[in-house]
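Hey team,

Filing this mostly as a record. A colleague (T.K.) asked me to run one chain through the structure pipeline before their review meeting, and I want the input and output archived in the tracker in case anyone asks later how it was produced. No errors, nothing strange. Just documentation.

Input sequence:
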Amino acid sequence: MLINLSNHPYAQWSEDQKQAAERFGDCTDLPFPSIDPEGGEAYIVRLAEDYMQKVIQIAKTKRNEKVTVHLMGEMTFVYALLEKLRQAEIRCIASTTQRMGIDLGNGRRDIQFHFVRFRYYY
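Output structure:
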């Protein structure tokens, strides 16, 4: 089972990314939280603890399946949650992308990201 904890719902993934995700099993979205930029370290720790419990609850629905979490987003939260998931021996992956930028002029750019592969956090 794959738990997608990112700002990009599975339904919006490219076909390449969906095919790559199939090796992890069914995908369940867990929307990434809106991180308060004014929040301190204690706030991030509490939020990571809350999301750790959410991951565990989802994982309990798939008792005999290995759970992998696709974890992408705000760095301090990702790091705090990653550490908790690793301690619980829950595998985590990141998606890698190729960034394509087009200069639109007047200081504006159009950025597109093209999925390349999943990579395990180590």
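Quick notes for T.K.: The chain is about 35% helix and 30% strand. Strands lie at 2-5, 27-29, 68-71, 91-105, 108-120.
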